[in-house]
Amino acid sequence: MRFGNHRYTVDWGHLLVIAMIAVICAAYLRDTLATSTHVNNILFVLPASIIALLLSAAIVPQAVRRVAESKVPEPAQKAQAEEDAPSETWRDLGWIALLVIGFGLFVYSLERIGFDVASWLFITLGLFICGERRILALVLYPPITAALLVFAFKALIPYPMFTLIL
Amino acid sequence: MIDLVASSAAFQLLISSPEAWMWVVPGIVIGLVFGAMPGISITMAMAIFLPATLYMDFLPAIIFLTAMYTGAGFGGSVPAILMNIPGTSSAVATTFDGYPMARDGRHNEAMGVALTSSVFGMLLSYTVLFLIIAPLADIVLGIGPLEMLVIALWGILLLGSLAGKYMTRGILAGVFGLLLGTVGMNTAGYMRGTMGVPWLLDGIPVVPAMMGLLAASQLFNLVNAKFLVEDESKRRISGRKILYGFKQAFRHPLVILRGSFIGVFIGAIPGVGSSISNLLSYAYTKRGDDDPESFGKGNPKGVVAAESANSSSEGGAMATMLALGIPGGGATAILLAAFAMHNVVGGPSFIANNQDIVYAILFANFAQGFLLLLVGLGFVFVASSVVRVPLRYLVPTVLVVACFGAYAVDGTIAGPITLFVFSVIGWLMARYGYPVAAVVVGLLLGGLVETQLLRSNQVSGGDFTYLLERPAAIAIIVVIVASMSFTAGAKQRRKRRVMMNERAQNGA
Questions:
Q1: Number of folded domains in chain A?
Q2: ipTM for this prediction
């Protein structure tokens, strides 16, 4: 990316994380001020949010770096950039994203299809995502583990757990 | 200081109650198992077994419950080391070096180090308590909201400044955690940040958030790995290596001693206690070390520092409970409930009138420490087999266990939802070098920090000169400023040295 006479590299992922933190803090501050501006309400949240926003602004230059105009980058700058960059490939990231989505769906389905069936399905999906391809393992391990976990937690915790089969 | 008559009466009491000793090993095992299960807190275990103690005499009942408490103190470290899941909030700092050691195939050593430091930290703390239980109670009574506020900030700022490479990212993570910790209704009755979600009125559920930030986020990264320990030859469970870990812990007696003292004194403060003590001990060990860069990458000293402090804070919390009748957390609250069930009223009069029982409890805890060493060794041996399980089985199974554990906190879907949201936040933050542990501690202490700030404001009437009347708070603030400046300076110096070395190498 080029601004004026200088070229910049942007770590978009890092910038997204900074934006996420800043947006959450700003939204929380806005909600707090909307609730009441009484000192008992804002005494902590106001200064803490301002500090968080200032720190977020201070970190932005770490995600947006100016590239040296010389053809060979400074060694320290190069080492820093290499050290800061996450090491996964896009393929690795794809599997991680799939597991995250699967985990989200598992949480969503717990009270809809029951802890037992949801766990069975999620463990099967998780096994596949993590590299298990043997049919026998995919068929046997998930229901047995799901059943054992459901029975164990049902015995341990004092709250009811919604299940479809067990 | 030590009442010899009461001490000998305590010995007689323990010798004449063989029934009390029968409950120690089962108590320790229950504590280890429950402490090692994420989400199933020791408070829940003690609450489940509390009714059973109704049919016991007073001393066996208390010894059974304290044995569970002792077992859980170490139990929480087992998943912290093996899976980066702190079983309890006091095991957060154990994950910093324990988990990298496990990933490096040094899980046997890490467990040995943790068990030894935990036991000896605890023994030291009870020795200290035996000597100073009465004066410690006076110190705790002198601690006001301002002191509690600065101690909580001390912990969070130290962690933020020390963990990770960038101080700004660490402090931002800490402040972000503190803000999230104040979501919901504050002590003055104002509701903020709930987004209309009823269960957020009580704040963000801390245990599921902690599991999401530290554990689930890490599990996502293991999708493409085959085993927790990649090198097959390092996956063996070796008693010899566990014993080597034992010896390793004793190579750092000063770290154990410092951790124990921090644990006793910080642990004695209700509400702050063990969540902070392990971080303070870790931070000071890292700072004082010749090679601070090796921390967070599998330095056993980090495990020693964290474990000696969190186990000894159990002693501190017991002191406050026995001397003042103030429970520092859920587990000591249940102990107090057990007192009440046996018609014993805790508090200052209890320690004055029943010094023999107080000493008997302290001695019994001492014995529990030694028994934990033996029982814990067997437990560690079994638990360590987790490194031999292929990750393709471990990752989805542990995610399900974490989810069930999050549900077990209050029996609502709020736990699993929080777990999921924070696992994504934790994964994103960890990916870009933000210390998620700082967010966790911020979350744990956010409510407390705000409450103490409000109380300080009310007590002082908004007058800043009130600070001058609180020398202890001033002393802690001076320590915070000095240690932050020292850390910032050391980080700058290190960065400059690295750059100069690189320049020199390129020039040559």
A1: 2
A2: 0.89
Q: Distances in Å between the alpha carbon of B381 and those of B27, B40, B86, B112?
A: 19, 21, 19, 10
Q: Return the amino acid letter for B17.
A: S
Q: What are the counts of helices (DSSP H) followed by strands (DSSP E) for chain B?
A: 23, 2
Look at residues A84, A109, A124 and tell me which one is the last residue of a structural domain: A84
Cβ–Cβ < 8 Å for B272, B151: yes
Model pLDDT, residue B163: 62
Query: From the CA of A5, how many Å to the nearest CA of chain B?
Result: 26
> Do A95 and A132 have their domain in common?
yes
B43 or A139, which is more confident:
A139
The DSSP letter of residue B107 is H
Q: How far apart are CA B301 and CA B289, in angstroms?
A: 9
Contact B168 A130 (CB under 8 A): no
pLDDT at B155: 73
- β-bridge pairing B191-192 and B184-185: antiparallel
Q: What is the CA radius of gyration of chain B?
A: 22
Taking CB atoms and an 8 Å cutoff, what residues of chain B touch A145?
A: 397, 400
B485 burial type by CB count under 10 A (0-12 exposed, 13-18 middle, 19+ buried): exposed
Please indicate, yes or no, whether residues A74 and A96 belong to a single structural domain of this protein: no
Q: Which residue has the tokens 């989505």?
A: A101
pLDDT digits (tens, 9 = 90+) for B242-258: 888 888 888 888 899 88
Task: Name the domain boundary from A84, A113, A140.
Answer: A84
Domain count, chain B: 1
